[in-house]
Amino acid sequence: MKRIIKNTEPATFTSWKASHPGATYKNDLCNINDASALVVKASLKQSLLAEQKFLCCYCECRITDANSHIEHFRPKDPTMFPNLQLEYSNLFASCTKEPTGTIDEHCGHKKGNFFSSDLVSPLEPDCSNHFSYMMDGTISGTDQRGQVTVQKLHLDSALLNGQRKSVIDDFLDVDDELLDEEIATHLDEKGATLGEFFTMVEYLRRSGQL
């Protein structure tokens, strides 16, 4: 999990909230019969994607508008955190457009309405320190919070393990004299996108495994 530094929320979102006091995420911002609300929601999602440099807020797989959803770190269930449904600091972009209900479900849809203080937030400066990685693409929690987060988000699903292993294998196929350059490019944070599974690659490189 890579730390996310939130930008200022889109002006359209701020204006919409000001003109819709008491609005809720599901009934108002996601109202399919309100074209103006859907435009605001679309601009909101683009802002989230851009500030995350098109990586899932939890697993760091590559995401686009087509394969992601707006995620509430503290659940949008009105019985839990109603005042945070439209709070920009509580909103992220997470992988997978719709729930699949499959054995490999992970990240936001897997978390559902679960929340605990043990859950690691991508806003925490040291969030990456709660996890470790192996060359086979597996992930582990380095402490209780990391372990809870891996379990509740299913970050160790076979699907994600395989995707991470594929990225590792791509690096292993690179000639030794070019490997440093390839990894540096992958970890370059100056561009509009970040390399997929950024934190894993950084961890494996720093630990001397890659």
Could you characterize what this model shows?
- With 210 residues, the protein is mainly α.
- It has one domain (11-206).
- Helices cover 39% and strands 8% of the residues.
- The chain contains eight helices and four strands; from the N terminus they run H-H-H-E-E-H-E-E-H-H-H-H.
- It has helices at 11-19, 25-29, 35-51, 107-111, 144-153, 158-172, 176-186, 198-206; strands spanning 68-72, 91-95, 131-133, 139-141.
- A two-stranded antiparallel ribbon has the order 1-2. It has a two-stranded antiparallel ribbon with strand order 3-4.
- Strand 3 and strand 4 (139-141) form a beta hairpin.
- It is globular.
Could you provide a short overview of the structure?
The chain is mainly α. The protein has helices at 11-19, 25-29, 35-51, 107-111, 144-153, 158-172, 176-186, 198-206; strands spanning 68-72, 91-95, 131-133, 139-141. Helices cover 39% and strands 8% of the residues.
- What general form does the structure show? globular
Structural class: mainly alpha
Point out poorly predicted stretches.
none
What's the main sheet like?
2 strands, antiparallel
Number of helical runs? 8
The arrangement of helices and strands along the chain is HHHEEHEEHHHH
How many distinct beta strands? Answer: 4
Q: What is the spatial order of strands in the main beta sheet?
A: 1-2
What percent of residues adopt helix (DSSP H or I)? 25-40%
Tell me the count of domains: 1
Question: What separation lies between the terminal Cα atoms?
Answer: 18 Å
As a percent range, the share of strand residues is 5-15%
Overall pLDDT level: 97
The radius of gyration over CA amounts to 18 Å
